[in-house]
Amino acid sequence: MFYLVAGLLIFLGMHSVRIFADGWRTQMLQRVGEGAYKGVYSLLALLGFGLIIYGFGVARETPVMLWNPPVGMRHAASLLTVIAFVLLAAAYVPRNGIKARVHHPMVLAVKAWALGHLLANGSVAHVLLFGAFLAWGVVNFIAARRRDRATGTQYPAGTLAGTAVAVVVGVAAWAVFAFKLHGLLIGIRPFG
């Protein structure tokens, strides 16, 4: 569990600098330059991500169960992960109505993904991993919306075509991941 916690602290800590120390972040960017800052940031984030993967794998070998979720929670998790993939696609597809409406679809994708996995899994490792990402997503979304209001950020209006592309790409990516890649990469096949 040590490696999982250490990985979460490093990974989510790096992704929380803008939330809790935006002034320090700005000073560091000016002092060392954008390339050096992003390089160190990326290395630390990769280290944290690697520790999360390793620590979660170790913790799954001897699971400590807090509860056994009802089978129906798997259906809720599937629905929430479809939503997460559509939101993730909306973060990158230009001029879609989803991003125009919610402004930070990637953070909402993390929240939907984490909540879905929390509902469907009851081990300590799952609660720690997905609970940490869900809490981070909530705090990050609030901070990002607050930043938008403070700076008067305006998001371009979405188009029907952009929104349709985001939905189609998101659902297709979800299907590939859920039916093929999840089993190959994670070792769990959500749909048998």
Describe what this molecule looks like in 3D:
There is one protein chain. By secondary structure, the chain is mostly helical. The protein is built from 9 helices and no strands. The protein has helices at 2-14, 17-20, 22-32, 34-61, 72-92, 97-102, 105-120, 124-151, 160-186. The protein starts with a helix and ends in a 6-residue tail after the last helix.
Question: What's the gist of this structure?
Answer:
Helices cover 80% and strands 0% of the residues.
Number of strands: 0
Question: How many helix segments?
Answer: 9
Name the structural class: mainly alpha
Q: Termini separation (Å)?
A: 28 Å
Task: State mean pLDDT (0 to 100 scale).
Answer: 95
DSSP strand content: under 5%
**Principal-axis shape:** globular
Topology:
Elements: H1 2-14, H2 17-20, H3 22-32, H4 34-61, H5 72-92, H6 97-102, H7 105-120, H8 124-151, H9 160-186
Helix pairs in contact: 1-4, 1-8, 3-4, 4-8, 5-7, 5-9, 7-8
